[in-house]
Amino acid sequence: MTIASEVKQCLASLKGIEASLSSLALRTEDYESKRTLHDSMMVVHEVITDLKKRVGELEREESQYKGF
Question: Which residue has the higher pLDDT, 28 or 62?
Answer without folding.
Answer: 28
